[in-house]
Design goal:
single chain; 146 residues; mainly alpha; Non-ribosomal Peptide Synthetase Peptidyl Carrier Protein, Chain A; two-stranded antiparallel ribbon; 2 domains; 7% strand
Length: 146
């Protein structure tokens, strides 16, 4: 059983998955920092020196100057500014993933189209040589089908 577990863990897919998870977490931290530290402060400054993380609604009816003050007071809040930061974060991550996937797909060769020396089997739709009289896949007699 230990050998089976060892073979499972050392197999390429598991190691690739672990590397992908670690890289994804690191990439997520970078994007979060990009959104919170680089993108949102200039946008907030353009909108009148606003910090988006302090956009919230107090559900208790009490007024608090910042989200940190409301949390320290134990007041339930609806944090739509933090949600806005998270949405921007998600959009950046999804755009980056789209760019990476498009680049990876370019690395794989496209399948060559079937040449003129092939045809499709009438019974199983497998591509076979034009001169074939019997399908090698489903063993149908193609001469009788004509």
């Amino acid at each position: 059983m230990l050998n089976d577990f060892k073979a499972f863990v050392v197999r390429g897919n598991v190691v690739d998955l672990a590397v992908g998870i670690v890289m994804g977490a690191s990439f997520g931290a970078i994007v979060t920092s990009l959104v919170n530290d680089m993108l949102m402060p200039p946008i907030g400054r353009l909108l009148g020196r606003v910090d988006f993380t302090n956009f919230f609604v107090s559900l208790s009816g009490q007024s608090h100057p910042t989200l940190a003050a409301a949390r320290a007071a134990g007041v339930p809040t609806l944090n739509y500014g933090v949600f806005l930061n998270t949405v921007v974060n998600f959009l950046i991550v999804s755009f980056a993933m789209l760019a990476v996937i498009r680049q990876v797909n370019r690395l794989y060769p496209k399948p060559a189209p079937a040449g003129p020396g092939t045809k499709g089997c009438l019974y199983c739709a497998t591509t076979i040589p034009t001169r074939a009289r019997r399908c090698p896949h489903c063993t149908s007699d193609l001469a009788a089908a004509r």
